[in-house]
Write a structure and sequence with these properties.
The complex is a heterodimer of chains A (246) and B (220). Chain A has 246 residues and is mainly alpha-helical. Chain A contains 7 helices and no strands. The termini of chain A are far apart. Chain B has one domain. Chain B is 85% helix and 0% strand. With 220 residues, chain B is an all-alpha fold. In chain B, helix 3 packs antiparallel against helix 6, helix 3 packs parallel to helix 7 and helix 7 runs antiparallel to helix 8. The chains are: A mainly alpha (246), B mainly alpha (220). At the A-B interface, helix 5 and helix 6 of A face helix 7, helix 8 and helix 9 of B.
Chain lengths: 246, 220
Amino acid sequence: MLTRLANPGFFMRVSGLALAPLAAAAALLFALGLYLAFFASPADYQQGETVRIMYIHVPAAWLALFFYSIMAVSALGTLVWRHPLADVSQRAAAPIGAAFTLVCLVTGSLWGKPMWGTYWVWDARLTSVLVLFLMYCGVLALWRAVDDPGRAARAVAVLTLVGAVNIPIVKYSVEWWSTLHQGPSVFRMGGPTIDPSMLRPLLVMALAFTLFGTALHLAGMRTEILRRRVRSLTLLQAERLERAAA
Amino acid sequence: MMRVFAALVRRDLAIAVRVGGAGGLGLVFFLMVVTLIPFALGPDLNLLSRIGPAVLWIAGVLATLIGLDRLFQADEEDGSLDLMRLSPAPLELVVLAKCVAHWLATGLPLALASPLFGLLVALEPAALGRTALSLLIGTPALAFTGAVGAALAASIRRGGLLIAILVVPLMVPVLIFGVAAADPANAGRDQALTILLALTLASGAVAAIGAAAALRGGGQ
């Protein structure tokens, strides 16, 4: 299945069929999730209405890591199998992941102002997400710096994998350095500590974000494949013109 | 294997000494950064001695970044990198040798001179020793991490800024544990020193594999 999907032509057909339903499902889930988050869930007894920022903030943080993992898996595909589709997947994932990381940082600091009294603190989690954002910036910068798409993909793949090795180290060293952010409350030993009335909208929003992100990723990959076809067609045409002129 | 390694280190050191005067220039740059910071902060010696280790470490990171853009690019341009790719010695060994030479030319003089520069920011004798020790142990990690960025940008013109953007996020852990290990008032300083050593060894392995993969990818 995976090997058949890895054929760009087949991928274009399947992704073209899957894109519309995926986007529609994401839109429906967003409508439901936003309704649950803003109207059908209680305000927090301590945080008041600002708790609703969490329904955007937490899924964005998950997706920031999710897209880095997609990049890392695609990077393996690029380096081990030299597969062009893996290059395309890497390339499409980078800006989406960077955008979700930025959303996570911005919503977090908007929440921090009323809650902590400041837009930014040098706390472990905030700082490690900031470092993640800087890594995304590095990946995007490297994509732009190398002209040849195949070489750029291999360079970015190395950078992504080195970054993937470093992310846990950065996370733990920054935690050792300073911590203020609340600990995990959904995925932890002994079950979630968050109330079901808030967990439900959070999970719906997380699913909506994931579907939305996947749809964006597919659309980005399709655009990139088409862009490469245009590029090689342009190169072919230039060659033909040159030969005709000679 | 060891002969190749030693020959490469000797060659790179000779180039550093004869062409760029890399070690000396790096030291001057280090001195410049240490001089600039009191101008920005004011001449308060108490404040300076409190942030002194951090100043020296930041100066160390910046001084490491300076020479990185030529680490592989010079060899890429004059073709010697192609010879290294073709040689029977593994590219990982070549990368390690070049990192060691880079460190001997920039990091080591910096660590050795840091007690002198520490006096400028009014460090206590205990802090002087610990800062020098932490720089001695930690700067190889900076050189190794930087080598990955240098290898990625080897064939890119004007890659200096790009290298900084690529590698600075990866240097965060080294900086955290380096400054923690340098502070004699920190209770976890010995633990931090051990972790710093672990980071140096681990980044050596990651750099050898990562930079070699990057150089192979760039050659096709």
